[in-house]
Amino acid sequence: MSSSLLDQRLAAAARLVEAELERLLADALQPDELDRPQRLLAAMRHAVLAGGKRLRPFLVIESAALFGVAPEKAVAAAAALELVHCYSLVHDDLPAMDDDDLRRGRPTVHRAYDEATAILVGDALQTLAFEVMGGASHDDPAVRAELTVLLARASGLGGMAGGQMLDLAAEGRFDGGAPLVLAEAEIRRLQAMKTGALIRVACLAGAVLGRADAAKRQALVAYGETIGLAFQIADDLIDLEGDAARAGKATGKDAAKGKGTLVSLRGADWARDELTRLVAAAATHLAPFGSAAATLDATARFIAEREV
Amino acid sequence: MSSSLLDQRLAAAARLVEAELERLLADALQPDELDRPQRLLAAMRHAVLAGGKRLRPFLVIESAALFGVAPEKAVAAAAALELVHCYSLVHDDLPAMDDDDLRRGRPTVHRAYDEATAILVGDALQTLAFEVMGGASHDDPAVRAELTVLLARASGLGGMAGGQMLDLAAEGRFDGGAPLVLAEAEIRRLQAMKTGALIRVACLAGAVLGRADAAKRQALVAYGETIGLAFQIADDLIDLEGDAARAGKATGKDAAKGKGTLVSLRGADWARDELTRLVAAAATHLAPFGSAAATLDATARFIAEREV
Which keywords, in A-to-Z order, does the entry hold (chains A, B) (predicted)? Predict the structure, then answer.
């Protein structure tokens, strides 16, 4: 698949998902509410409706498409994943966490509003994600309940939140310690939790929506794990070599924090070779789907080669 | 029902729920995890396994019992509600929010650990709540999915988180403003969201677990709304007149913040009369259940008369 065709599919999915997110956040308050929670709603909209690649929802939609599920039937689950991603960004940016002022070139929520509002924005976005996953992600409540559990497992102590905790520990944030020197296996584990788990579950969610058999579920899980790792290595390369204006966020942060990444451990040349290897591995995992998986195959290359 | 018999039932439910919470938090990490997320798990345990009345889980268990549901069949849903309650306390206590050092006579999570850990504790406890509700609250996935949505609606923008936002606004926390003077209807709306929604859904959850008909669901919703209001008025009375050592938390905070409550607006005598009226109203809502509802009837009195 050409990169321009992939761009078109990415843009179409992003439009669909953003319309769904817009609808969820417009409908969230009834007109007879008090005026004051409007501040919370406005800040939630600031956090969610700020553009971005919408990669995780795209993976849900494209994985589901392998099983003949129309994008309109996958968009609620896709939006739920994006809400979890957005909540995590709001909380990760907080002063007590990564203390970031910019996100996608705009002020972070606690800079545009305040810390208390940003904490509540993250909380309420996580809640909304589970409301959508439990209530609207599929006609069959058994599928909705399964997706709810899968999303929770990818997000909590054993997934994204646990990974963020490991990341803060690796930066030496607790007990007044210096940054920890992590072994490669520990860095990989951290990545699999912090950024990998949500990408993995995005691909798996498509299989669940499509009522895929165990082999095809497993193929999409393996694909998701592979591109999740590629995503993180590309992210670390951007942080090492990238331009802040282009990336829309500060770069050079890992080195400034003394934080070990696979790229700092193995070097940029190794990282570029590894990305090539991961793109090939992703294609292998997609083989059972034949030409129907051309978009996901192109997505793996897109993730490995991205510069923002 | 005598108050000592109610105490026994409260204690029995608390033991059951605490065993469930202990199990959930012990099982949450596999032994081969890295050491570092253990800090997050330990902080989650600090937040959850700190005693307390376990009122919300008790309401789930006792409401479900009206329909012949055994406590063991209601305890997962009960634990999920308690996890949401505990997450909200951890985040409400943060320096950017209410800035509390003590909770139930022990250091709050951000005092015992640090702010970043406390933010992640709240996040991961919310996630765990939805994992439990979506995955283990009932044999029937349709019930699990319904309970997931009900819990989310009680917790998010239109419920607990939205209510906390209103509460911060009422304290004049945004735009450098003075405390807002709220009308009685606005105070009632704030209470219904911040503390009422979760108490209401605890009672409704029992009806959903028991597959109650619409009339009995509605009766339990009305009961839940009534005792939720009584809970808040009793809480405001404790803050106005109570002793910090006995309450296990700081008192006099509402007045110090210039925060309007129903009690500050109408006076302590009105509040005590109103509590008597609410206890009678709760009994009316329970009438369809006859003597089976003796425990819930006694619970309404317990809530209205509590001093801690």
Answer: Isoprene biosynthesis, Magnesium, Metal-binding, Transferase
CA B304 vs. chain centroid, Å, equals 15
Query: Which one-letter DSSP state was computed for residue A105?
Result: T
Report the Cα A267 to chain-centroid distance in Å: 25
Neighbours of B264 (CB within 10 A): 17
- Per the structure, the complete domain to which residue A95 belongs is given by 3-305
> Is B135 in Cβ contact with A134 (below 8 Å)?
no
Q: What's the token pair of residue B211?
A: 């597959």
Query: What Å distances lie between residue B217 and B80, B211, B214, CA to CA?
Result: 20, 9, 5
Which one, of A209, A189, A259, A187, lies nearest residue A71 by Cα? A209
- Cα A247 from Cα B232, distance rounded (Å): 48
Rounded Cα distance, A110 and B199, in Å: 30
Cβ-based neighbours of B43, under 8 Å, separated by 6 or more: B109, B112, B113, B117, B118, B120, B121
B4 CB-near residues (< 8 Å, 6+ apart): none
Secondary structure of residue A179 in the 3-state scheme: coil
Q: Is B157 helix (H, G, I), strand (E, B) or coil?
A: coil
- List the single residue in B with minimal CA-CA distance to A164: B120
From the list B18, B112, B39, B130, the residue with the least C-alpha distance to A164 is B39
The DSSP 8-state label assigned to residue A210 in this structure reads: T
Q: Hey, which residues does B106 pair with through a beta bridge?
A: B103
pLDDT above 60: residue A75: yes
How far the first Cα of chain A sits from its last, in Å, is 21
Identity at B287, one-letter amino acid code: A
pLDDT per position as a tens digit, B31-64: 555 555 889 999 999 999 988 899 999 999 999 9
Long-range contacts of B2-5 (CB under 8 A, 24+ apart): B2/B298, B3/B298, B3/B301, B3/B302, B5/B298
Q: Express each pLDDT in B195-248 by its tens digit.
A: 999 999 999 999 999 999 999 999 999 999 999 999 999 999 988 887 666 666
Q: Give how far B274 is from chain A: nearest CA, Å.
A: 24
Contact A100, A249 (CB under 8 A): yes
Q: Which of A44, A158, A189 sits opposite B29 (nearest CB)?
A: A158
Give the residue from B122, B107, B258 showing the smallest Cα distance to A120: B122
Instruction: Answer whether B144's CB lies under 8 Å from B80's CB.
Output: no
- What is chain B's mean pLDDT, rounded? 92
Q: Across residues A79-99, what is the average pLDDT?
A: 97
Planar angle of CA B7, B195, B249, nearest 5 degrees: 65
pLDDT on residue B200? 98
Interface check B51 vs A, CB under 8 A: no
Q: At A297, list the tokens.
A: 């195959």
- Is B34 part of the contact surface with chain A (CB cutoff 8 Å)? yes
Give which of A38, A99, A157, A168 to mutate to test B binding, by max B Cβ within 10 Å. A157
CATH number, domain of A102, equals 1.10.600.10
- Phi/psi for B152 (5° steps) reads -65, -45
Average pLDDT over residues B265-273: 94
- CA A79 to CA A70: how far, in whole Å? 15
What are phi and psi for residue A103, nearest 5 degrees?
Answer: -150, 120
Report the C-alpha gap between B111 and B121 in whole angstroms: 13
